[in-house]
Design goal:
alpha+beta; seven-stranded mixed sheet; five-stranded antiparallel sheet; 5 helices; globular
C-alpha cells in the first residue's frame, strides 16, 4: 500500500488526530481505568477485523494511540481507516479525543562526524543501527519506548557536539506552546524555518525545536 504524503494526511480531515513523524496519534480521555480498558478492548476487536494494529498505552484516565504502517514506514489508508473507527469507538464510549495533548520527542545531536559517534550512541541506548540509506542519519528503538535519535551535520568549531530535543506537535498547538514558553522565561531564537520548526531557548541558552509536518518535503513512496 502507498505511503500518504503529509498533505494527503491533512486533507483526510481526521479530527482529533495528529500526524507526527511516521504515524497518526491521538490521546483518548476516559473517565477511569475500567472505561479505558473497555475502549482498548473495542479497539483490539476492530484492529483484528481490519488486520491492522495500533500501538496502545493505557493509563488511568487516558489512552495514547499511535497507528503507522511499518511495511512502508509511514501512514497509509489503513491508518486513516483505523483512526476513523477508533474515533467512533471513543465517541460511543463517551470519551474525548485530546489532540492538544499529543507530542512526540526526538533527540538531535549536532556533529561534524556522524559515522564516528553513531555506533557509540546506538550501543549506549541499546538501539539499532540503520540498514537503509533513507534512515542513515538516525537510530531508533525497535520497541518505540525511547525517542528516536538523529544526527544533524554541523561544523567542526567548538562546541563540536550539542544535544537538543525536537518536539513534534499539532500545528494548531504551536502558538499556545510558544506563548507558554516565552511566559516561562524562554526566548524565540529563530522562526526563519516556520512553519516547519521554531527554535527556542531557555534562560540559560539551552535550545529546543518545536516541529510540525508543515512545509516539509513529502515522503517518497
Amino acid at each position: 500500500m502507498t505511503k500518504l504524503t503529509r498533505k494527503q494526511i491533512a486533507e483526510a480531515g481526521l479530527d482529533g488526530w495528529v500526524y507526527v513523524p511516521g504515524g497518526l496519534q491521538t490521546r483518548i480521555r476516559t473517565k477511569d481505568f475500567a472505561g479505558g480498558l473497555a475502549v482498548v478492548n473495542a479497539i483490539g476487536a476492530v484492529a483484528e477485523e481490519l488486520d491492522h494494529h495500533p500501538d496502545l498505552n493505557l493509563r488511568y484516565g487516558f489512552i495514547d494511540v499511535r497507528s503507522s504502517s511499518h511495511d512502508v514506514g509511514g501512514v497509509t489508508e489503513r491508518d486513516v481507516r483505523l483512526a476513523r473507527r477508533i474515533s467512533v469507538i471513543a465517541a460511543e464510549a463517551g470519551a474525548v479525543l485530546e489532540p492538544e495533548r499529543v507530542s512526540r520527542l526526538e533527540l538531535a545531536l549536532d556533529t561534524p562526524d556522524r559515522a564516528a559517534v553513531q555506533p557509540f550512541w546506538a550501543a549506549v541506548f541499546g538501539m539499532e543501527l540503520p540498514s537503509g540509506a533513507a534512515l542513515a542519519d538516525e537510530i531508533s528503538d525497535p520497541a518505540d519506548a525511547l525517542p528516536t535519535v538523529w544526527f544533524q551535520q554541523s561544523g567542526s568549531e567548538e562546541p563540536r557536539q550539542r544535544w537538543h530535543p525536537d518536539i513534534w506537535i499539532e500545528p494548531a498547538q504551536v502558538q499556545p506552546r510558544l506563548e507558554a514558553a516565552l511566559a516561562a522565561g524562554g526566548e524565540l531564537v529563530s522562526d526563519e524555518a516556520a512553519p516547519s520548526f521554531w527554535v527556542l531557548a531557555d534562560p540559560e541558552g539551552n535550545r529546543v525545536c518545536l516541529c510540525t509536518w508543515q512545509d516539509r518535503e513529502p515522503p517518497q513512496s
